[in-house]
Structure prediction request, 313 residues.
Amino acid sequence: MSQQAQHVSIIEVGPRDGLQSEPEVLPTAVKIEFITRALDAGIRRLEVSSFVHPKRVPQMADAEDVIRGLPAREGVTYIGLVLNRKGFERAQVTGIHEIGMAVVASDTYNQRNQGVPTSESVKAWIDIARAAKAAGIRANVMISSAFGCPYEGEIPVARVLELVDQVMEGDPIELGFADSIGVAVPNQVTDLLGAVMARVPGVPIRCHFHNTRNTGIANAQAALVAGVASLDASIGGIGGCPFAPAATGNIPTDDLLYMLDRSGIHTGVSLEKIIATSQWLQEQLGRSTPAMLPKAGIFPQIAEKNRAAGGAV
Ligand code: MG
Prediction:
C-alpha cells in the first residue's frame, strides 16, 4: 500500500542552492526581498544562505547580512548551510533557527566540495550536531550525491546506508538525500528510500533533486509515494552546484507545486504567488529561468483565459 503523504513540506532552497550557482551576485536587499516573497507565498522553511568560504562561493559572502535583514515571522524556519565547525560558529552568532550540514557519499566529491574526505565531514557533523543541540539550534544532515557521483560514478545503496548509520549518531531532526548532479531516476529513489526507511523507521526524510536530466519531478513523485516529509525546490528552478560539472537547477518550486496541487497534496503554498515571485526573479536576474509553469500557466485556470481570448491555443 502506498505511504504517500497527503501533506508535504516544500523547503525553498533558491536563496541558497539557487543563487550560489548563478553567475550574478544579487544585492543583499534583493535576496531579502526574494525570501520575503517566498514567505508571503506560504513557504515556511527556507535555506536562506550558506556559511562557506566567501572566496569559494562569493555569492554567499553576505550570509550574516541577509540573516540580519530577514523578517521575524511566526512558524517560519530559516536554515543556514554549514560544511564545517567554522561555518557553524558563524551561523550560531546570527541566531539562525536551523543549520543544515552536508556529507557527500563519495570521498572524491567530498574532498572537492569540502576539502576533506567524507569520514572527516561525518565527524564534523556529529560535533556540530552536539554543539547545535546545546545552543538550541535545530540541525539536519543531508547525504549528498546519494544517487551518483560526478567523479566516482554509481553509489551503492549499501554505501549510503553505511553513512546513514554514521550520521544518525548526531540525532538529526531530518535526514536528507541529495541528487546533487541530477542523475537519479524514480526506481532508484524508490529503492533507496525503501532501504533507508526500513533502516531508520520514523526519521523524517527529505529529498533534494536537481533537474539536470529532466528526471527531477519524476523523482519527486517517487519520493512522495515513498512517504518523504519534505522536498527541496527552488523558485524558477535556478541553481546547480559550483563544484559539480554541468549541474543545473533544483526542481522548480513552481512546477513541483503544480503537481502537488493537482494531486491534492497539501503544502500551504500559493502557486499564483510562487509564479509571481518567479517572474520577479527573472527580472532581477535579467533572463529567463527553467521553470515551466510561469510560461504555460496554471491549468485549469488557463482555460478561462483562452476562452476569453477567443482564439485557438
Ligand atoms: Mg543542490
